[in-house]
Every structure is written in C-alpha cells, then in structure tokens.
Amino acid sequence: LLNAGVFVLGGGEDCTDLYTGDFASVAVVHEAYYNTNLTAVQVGGRTVQVAPAPARGAAASNSFIDSGNSGLMLDPGLYQQVIELFNAVDPTFGPALQAPGFDQTKLDLARWPTLGFVLQGVGGAPVTLTVQPKDYWQFDGYGAGTATAGLINGGAPHAGQSILGLPLLAGHYVVFDRTGGPGNSVIRFATPRDPNAAPLV
After folding, report:
1. In whole angstroms, what is the distance from residue 86 CA to residue 46 CA?
2. What is the pTM of this model?
3. What is the edge-to-edge ordering of all strands in the sheet holding 35-36?
4. Beta-carbon neighbour count of residue 119 at 10 Å?
5. How many CB atoms lie within 10 A of CB 90?
C-alpha cells in the first residue's frame, strides 16, 4: 500500500512503539510556522550550499517544514542547482524530474540517488535528513501509471525560501514540538519502527 502512514495527535517521544533509535532535533528559528535554517542539499554525495534568507526580505528564514505540503518546493535558484546535481549523477535524471509525468514502468528507483537536507540543529550543530527515491517520487500521482517527482520549482511565499513537505517527512517519525515555549521549539526526527516488526512487550 502506497502513501500509508500514522498521524498522531498529542503524541511524541512517549510513543516508543512507533520509532527506533535516538531523535535528531532541528531548530525552529522563528515561531511563525516551523521556520528552519537549511544550509545544504546533497544529491548522491554531491553538495550545494544554501544561502540564508535575503537580508531585510519578507522571509523569516530560508525554509520551513510543512506537514500540509505534498512536495519539496525549492527556491528557484536552489532548484536549478539541485537539478544540476542530479544531472551530474546521470544526465537523464534532470529531464525526468522536470517532466509533468513519467512512465513509472521505466523508473528504476535503485538507480536514483538519496537526497540529503542539512538543517541547523539545536545548539547550531548540523542535522542531515535523508530522503529516499521512493519518497521523492510519487507513483500514480496524477494518473494511473504515471510517476511525479516531489521536487518543485518555486512556490514558497517569499524569495529565497523553500518549503520542505511530505517527501522529507515520509521516511521519518516526526514530532513537531512547541512545548519549550517561544524560542525553544524544535522538530524531532527519528527512524520509524517497521510495522511488520514484532510488537514491543
């Protein structure tokens, strides 16, 4: 079953049956939405640095994590750089990503690279979150037999800003945590527990 998941209201680190391992905590740098500081994007071991939000611009930060967004809406300049990184891995990847729909019978996910998003963590330490090909490609997205890439050119409300949505969340157990009060909000990421694993006792 594709696009399956669990949405927990009011739960967090106490839901130990839903995740394994430790949490990595991304700092929320502004209390409007869940604003974050994206510092780099990685494609198959290649890296592009991400500029901070424009000074005196309208954006509170250069990115925010949005559970209500179905894609990775990258600032246009960053989007082009990321497409170039994909093309450096394989020159057919960029055109496939930018197509409105791709024949999913021709899509071999094993050939596609992992994406990495490097964000500012709590205390300033970098946190790298990975996005697997199965999560940035959506099968049967706009019609049966058609795959659609979750990488989108632009769409954020302000210049120099990216919105990180469902593909970033899909491979993680995520806790949006405002319990620390203003200035101390975080987004915690852990590895989701395999639903087929033996239940905890």
Report:
1. 9
2. 0.91
3. 35-36, 63-65, 162-164, 72-74, 151-153
4. 25
5. 13
Residue 180's pLDDT is: 80
Distances in Å between the alpha carbon of 174 and those of 8, 57, 63, 66, 190?
A: 10, 29, 17, 11, 7
In the chain, what is the straight-line distance between the N-terminal and C-terminal CA atoms, in Å?
Answer: 27
- CB 53: neighbour CB atoms within 10 A? 23
Handedness of CA 72, 75, 80, 81 (dihedral sign): negative
Structure tokens that stand for 88 in this block: 């450096």
> Residue 143: what pLDDT?
84
Which residue carries 């969340």 as its tokens?
A: 169
Average pLDDT over residues 25-40: 93
Question: φ, ψ for residue 177 (rounded to 5)?
Answer: -120, 110
What pLDDT digit, counting tens, does each position of 54-74 carry? 888 888 899 999 999 999 999
Burial environment of residue 100 by CB neighbours within 10 A (0 to 12, 13 to 18, 19 or more) = exposed
For residues 89 and 1, which has the higher predicted lDDT (pLDDT)? 89
Q: Tell me: the pLDDT tens digits for 110-137?
A: 999 999 999 999 989 999 999 999 999 9
CA distance readout (Å), 66 to 22, 119, 149, 164, 197: 22, 14, 18, 6, 29
